[in-house]
Design brief:
mainly alpha, about 50% helix, Transcriptional regulator
Length: about 70
Amino acid sequence: MAHLTFDGAEQRELREAARAEFLGNPALAYVLESLAAEGIDLDTCRDWDDIRADRGLPEKSGEAPHVA
């Protein structure tokens, strides 16, 4: 199982960023705090194309290859 964890300094930086964003963007603050605490399980990450298909979004067009 691949799991990305953050060292103490990185955890502090993520938590500080979460506190700075809390009032303006509580969803981002939650995500940053979760990342700091839990890390990222890379085995559960999904490809953007799979997410698009699950949400019923159209496939990327050739006109804007870097825009999702």
